[in-house]
């Protein structure tokens, strides 16, 4: 039996999707089969991100990151903990993950770069200590 040639309608729907980032955590959204029909309306990567959303503290962290970077030389970097300390005071450790989420959202908008060892890294896969800088 002869094999049938693939037609454009047989194309993988996942390949047709554009990359998206989560509106809450800033990580890359991995497509799922159940989202194929409404891919354009998908905004969050998970139910946890959907329920968390972006609150006032998250927006304040983003503004603080911008302020801290503007106060330094153009080629310098900051740590997300600097923003967490500026807002959180004694409880700054509780703001570390929100600060990293804020940085990832800013990377998705092109306002920031995340580096490790001086090299720009993918914010969705970066693990460990990171630094934040303005785009070059």
TrEMBL record:
InterPro entries assigned to the protein according to its UniProt record, in alphabetical order: DUF3253 (IPR021660), UCP037205 (IPR017136), WH-like_DNA-bd_sf (IPR036388), WH_DNA-bd_sf (IPR036390)
Gene3D superfamilies: Winged helix-like DNA-binding domain superfamily/Winged helix DNA-binding domain
One Pfam family hit: DUF2256
Residue runs in coiled coils: none
Domain of life: Bacteria
Protein name: DUF2256 and DUF3253 domain-containing protein
Organism: Cryobacterium glaciale
Higher taxonomy: Bacteria, Bacillati, Actinomycetota, Actinomycetes, Micrococcales
């Amino acid at each position: 039996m002869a094999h049938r040639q693939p037609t454009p309608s047989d194309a993988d729907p996942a390949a047709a999707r554009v990359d998206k980032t989560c509106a809450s955590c800033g990580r890359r959204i991995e497509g799922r089969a159940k989202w194929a029909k409404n891919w354009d309306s998908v905004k969050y990567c998970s139910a946890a991100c959907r329920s968390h959303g972006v609150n006032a503290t998250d927006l304040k962290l983003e503004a603080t990151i911008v302020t801290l970077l503007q106060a330094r030389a153009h080629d310098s970097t900051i740590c997300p903990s600097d923003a967490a300390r500026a807002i959180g005071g004694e409880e700054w450790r509780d703001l570390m993950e929100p600060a990293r989420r804020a940085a990832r959202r800013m990377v998705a908008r092109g306002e920031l770069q995340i580096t490790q060892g001086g090299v720009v890294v993918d914010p969705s896969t970066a693990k460990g200590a990171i630094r934040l800088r303005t785009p070059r």
